[in-house]
Amino acid sequence: MSNKPTKTDDWNTYRLALQERTYHIEWLSSMVDLQMMRERFLPMLQLHKPRSSEDMRLILPFENIEIRGQFEKHALLLKGYISVTIETAGVAHPDVLYLPCKKSNYRGIEEPKEEFSEAGPLEAFTESLETNSNMIRRRLVTEQLQVRNLTLGSAKTPASIFYLAESQILADRLTYQVEQASIDHPKTLLDISNFAMRLPNGKSTFFPPYEFTELPLHAIHMLESGKVILVMEGSRKALIAPTSFEDSFVTVSDLFLSHNYVVVIRVVRVFSFIMALTLTPLYVAVNTYHFQIFSIKLIETMLISRYQVPFSAFFEALIMELLVLIQLEAVTRLPTKLSQSAGIVAGIVLGSAAVEAGLVSNVMLVMVAVSALFTLTSASVQMRNFLFVLKIPCLILAQLYGMTGIGLFWFLMLSRMFAVRSLDQPFALFGLLPFSRYLKGKE
Length: 443
Hints:
The protein is α+β, with helices and mostly antiparallel strands. It is built from 15 helices and 13 strands.
């Protein structure tokens, strides 16, 4: 197979003859900003008529101009460079000038799509590394803020690590892990979340060892808390490391609320996390094994509601939880306005129809609805997603072993959580000191 690069239809060639020299210009129209080329490059070339690539570099108002050989032309053109080869008396010079003129068609700063804050600025990261870096710099004005520029993968995607001077050790660890993960990376780098899967522990655990945010204010708060931030060109989110289980219950809105209210709402979030995993399995365990722990009135209500239901409590709960997962996936793929309507229709119409048809009991419908509300109170989008999935194994263990199975589920989940590490630091820290810092807002 030949390694010679083939020219595509967007490969353009232009020859500019000025006196005794000819400038052979090549570029990819899909990658190059043509307006910049016409306004800043060609006029300067026609005005000064440089004799060599070095003279050309001195007169052109561009940064990061490179002078290399012909063999690197194809790779640099794919990155948005313009190649200029000077010919004198029909003989091409061995040195080729490569001019960075990449086209950047990114959207402007908009409101966040996933993370919501009832207070603070309504701005989110974009796909432009330069814009994201500016949003961090102009809000965190301090000499302690350090920036480390990197390139990711074989495509040399630009990225930056932000950290305060006191967090240099963590920045060094992240830099090492990023460089190791960049070795033999596929040429197509989809997103920072996709790249994070190649970092240590990125794909070997169910719990996310790295947190992502689209809010610059959240990223700045994490920087002030001693963490480091990774921002990548082409990605609308920033990676936060190291992260911990406590961070899943912290939102940027906490910065604008009173201390007492923050303490209460964080306790509510922890309670909601526990109940989101336990409520429906607890209903299955009680219906299957533990009738005696509730009063006769409550048992009668549960039995009457399930009188005409043809399924066991386990299959009833499993079907409803799977329907919630399907509904969540369907709503996620729809446009915003349509997804809201579809969610309401699916929740009300299908739920009422299932109860009237005798396929689902009233109590089960209430349990699943309340469990979904508990799940949606999660501060982290990642936490919210894996809570919906974690209910299924908990349901299975509750059906097999009752409340003992629920306890076994929590033991296995916490054991796995304690084994996860984020940037060589433990993901889960439980005790009086972490809990005290969590309530005081000093994460």
